Structure formats: structure tokens, C-alpha cells
Amino acid sequence: MDALRLEWAEGAPRLRTSEAMARQGLVTTVSSRAGTAAVVGWVGSARDRAAGARSLLDDSGRQGAAPPVPAGDYAAVLVYHDRILLMRDEQARIPLFFRESGGRVSAVSTSVRCLGSVTELEPRYFCRYLTGNMAQPHSDLTPFARVHRVLGGEVVELSRTGQMRSRTLRRARRATDPPEPTADGSCLDEAARELRLALENAVGCRMGTTTACHVSGGTDSTSVALLAARLLAAERGGAGDLVLLAGRFSRGELAAEQPYLDVAMEEIRRHTPAARPVIVDADDVADFDDFQHHAGDADEPHAHAFRAPFWARLHAAAAELGCDTLLTGCGADPIADANPFHLHRLARTGALRQMAEQARAWAAGSERGLWDIVRAYVVQPALPLAAERITALLRGGTVLGGLGTFNRPGWLRSGFARAHGYREAGIAESRFVFGRKPEQSLYDAANYVSAPDLLSWQRAQQDGFFLSHPFLDPEVVATMSRLPAAATFQPGRPKAVLREAMADLLPAPIRGRTVKVPFNDLYARGLRTHGDELIALCRSARHPLIAEMFDVETLCRAVREAQLGLGDAYSWDRVNSSLALVAWLERLDRRSGALGAPVPVTAAS
């Protein structure tokens, strides 16, 4: 989707924005004597987007200054008298791309599709994409040759004529770190206070005039909605409206969530009686519904397009009520829970006895075997590709047997993988996921797998809002990452710090629950319903890259195995990603990169 575009005419920059998205408040343009800024999304506060855009323009325009990238959900183009800056926030929810050749940028856009050529694809991107579902947002590569991605937290500086000057990564401005909690009984209390403050700030800055909160009855989404309700109740003059958005299932496994959902809704409305509950009947929704639309029309391949039907149903309900932002609880599982890779830190620093004791406690608390814990959080991070290869040998016999996050799937042709760097892509992905310090890499990786943001971006113009995720706020992540294990690790009590932080708000049934029903039922139903269609899609595919890349019959066998329940979440992710890529390539020629009705923005001169 093309929300803004920067091009050059007769050597001068020309910046245009989408008129429709500007009317919706999704794009904000401000100008001063220094220059012009076009911001997609919001900087600082979702409610005062113009002030945030002005602050970004002023702060970034100061000579000799290199301020931290401010927090928010945005992509921005800033045109000054002497330079041009392209930037995104650290969460990197809103895309930004540039087309470059010979050190000169010829165009910038939020749409990779409008910058690229369907006849000049980048095979290395597809290898990186197929290594796992984290590959897209943190890689410079895009599906199109000579089109690059501005990374999260990156500032790209160009000359006024488009010559590339620099690319730098900057951290967001952080709150002053408080003293680290002590190891005595006050450890959990102090950690909870820190998290509560950070989460309140994250929710507050994301609230709009009409805010929707996704409520599922779990600890995470209920916490976000309760904080939003409390913040609205504390304001005077009715500064905003609150919509409580939920999907209802009356049959299947997910029906067991309904009592928790009812309790959550009741408690939230106790704080803000004017909050409007919107319960969307989702009994007829299944994964892979209208898959070719959701996967094929995305700006780039969307690994989680199979789950789009459920989210799209909720989005439509929020859009009908005029919501201008939608908050979710996405990201809380890896961010707010105890960090299991702390065991890796103990092992690599030689604290083997302490590591073994904590691994036993972790195994008992999670009802898993000791070896499973050690393999997942100590061995796998140390030797990720080797560990997966051994697992594949031990669990072989089927297409999905032993297929983990980095192993080459059996349907990806070995010749294509060798020619276009699949092994190198797997190494790069494993280093990103685990890094030198896996306990820190967990937070970086969580930012890119915890939310359906490509769907949000794809639907933004028709919905009028973007998704926003308070648990993935940089301040929340920084708060959790600096807490000692003594504060976060409570065997048998997941997300102990979050539960303590929300103890005065969460109703007892939700605060005490430790297990939430997954969406496996939707996935199984989707494969039962659409499995034959997905196989037909693969067999009828005509894009030449599909046959070059995939052994189609092996991919079809993998779909059949997934239908039968074989494999696990990792292997199913690999099937889903590949199916989404097939659908995307098949519809590549059917989409237009037109900006629509643009508003010319006069660049500073």
C-alpha cells in the first residue's frame, strides 16, 4: 500500500502522500522553514500526531545532532534544505522502502510493490523468507532487485539529489533505568511496579480518540484493556471512547474461553461503564478462508496470512465503529514471561550446577522433561543448525518429520537453495534468533513474530487504523530485559511479574489461569476445509519461479501430512510460509502500484 512516495523531478525532490489516508489521520504532513515531514502512523502519542511529526522534524533537523529515534509506530520521510532523512521506529510495524542503483536513490515508498519490477525478483530474499517467519522485517532484502528496506530504528540520510550518504541504527530514547531489584523478598514487588509503570505509559501513548482493545479473556489482552479503561476513567471531559473487541466461539476447543471472556468484559466495564463491548461471532471462521486474497494481495509474502480471516473479521467490526487505533496483547508471551535463555547464560558462564537446578525447576513448572528444557534453551541456541539436523534425522520418515525453524524444507529444491544462499540465510537467521546472548536476542526476535502487522498494513486504508502492541513497546522490553531471573522466574506461575503488576485489576479467574486454549482448532478446521484447494493452488501455479524453487508434489504431501495432524508448530509454519509465497507469486502481476489520489507536498527549497 502506497501511503507516501518520494521521487525526483528535474533534480529536485517531490514528496506526495495519499489523500485518503491523510483524511483518516494515518498520514500526517507538517512543514516549517527547515523543511517538510510526512509521517505514516504516529510519533510520541497517537492522539497528537501533528505535534509528534513537528517534534520529529525539528529534532532531526538540528545541525550536528543525531538524536535517538523516538518511540511510536511510524515510517517517516523528512526533506530539509540540505538533506533527506528516511526513518522508522524500532518496532518497525509500518514499512518503508527505497529503490537504489549506483549509490543513488531514485524513489522511496511505503509500498515495495510499487518500487519493484515483477520481472526482476531477488531470489536471495525468498531463501531468507523461507528460513523462518522472522526473516522479513529485519532483513535489508526485499522481493525485488535493487529495492531495499529501511530497517527498524534505522536512519537513512540522502543528499537533496538522492545520493546515499549514510545508514545508521539508533536506539529509541529510554527512561532512566531504576536500580536493579534486590534478591530478597521485595524483588518481585519492585519488578512489578516497574513493569506496571512502563505498561501504563505504553498503553497511554497508543490510545486514540476511539480506541479498540482486543479482549480474548487471557492475561495479556485483558491487562491492556484494563489499563486503557483506567486511563480513560481518570481523564476528565470524556476525552475518548473505548471499544472492547472479541471473537466468540460457541463450539470447539475455543468455546472454553467464553467464561473468561465474560469475566474480562465485566471487569473492564466496571472501570469504564461507557465502554462498548463488540462480540463478533467467529464460529464460521477457519484458517485459510479466502487464502489467495489474503496471501496474494499482500505487499510482500505474508507468512501468517493463513490466520488473516479471524483478524480481518475483528478489524471490520472495529472499522464500522470508527476506531482510530486497535490495541492488542500480542508480544506478552516472550516479553512478559520469564526468559528461559537465562539457562544458556548460566551454562556459558560456567554456573552448571545452578543451571541444572533451575532447569529442573523449569521442567517441573512447565510439565516438560529436563532434557527437553536443556535441549531447547542451552543446546539449541549454541548449535542451532546442527541441533536441527540431528533432530531431523531422529524424527525422519515423513516430509514434516524433524523440520524445525532453520532446516531446509524437503520441498525447497536443493539446487535453488545452493544457488541463492539458503545455508547462509539459515546461519544469518539463527544468529538473529539466538545471537551471542540468546537471553537478549529473545526480545529482539519477539518483536517480529508476535503480531499480524502485515495484515494490519494491508487493511489500514479500509479500516482507518493500525494495530498497536503495548507489550512490544521499547520501554516495556527494556524493563523486562534488565530484571534479574529471581524476579521473573516463578516455577508453575508463568508471567509472574505481569500478574503481580496487575494484581489490583485482573479478576481472580484470569489472574490465576496458567493455560490458554490455542487456535489449533481453527488451523485444523482450515486444513480440513481448504486442504484440497491449497493443493490445487500449488499444482496449478504458473509463475516460473515456483517450479524452479519448489518440488510441488513434495509440498502437496506436506499439506496432506499437516491435514492428518503430523508435524508440529515449527513444521506447520514452514508449510504456511511456502503456501503464502505460492499465492503471492501467482498474483504478482495482478496488483497495481498506483498511489491513488495523492496530495503534492512542496519540498523545502
UniProtKB/TrEMBL annotation:
Domain Asparagine synthetase: 194-585
SUPFAM superfamilies associated with the record: Adenine nucleotide alpha hydrolases-like, N-terminal nucleophile aminohydrolases (Ntn hydrolases)
Region Disordered, residue ranges: 162-186
One of the GO BP terms on file: asparagine biosynthetic process
Gene Ontology molecular-function annotations: asparagine synthase (glutamine-hydrolyzing) activity
Name listed for the protein in its UniProt record: Asparagine synthase
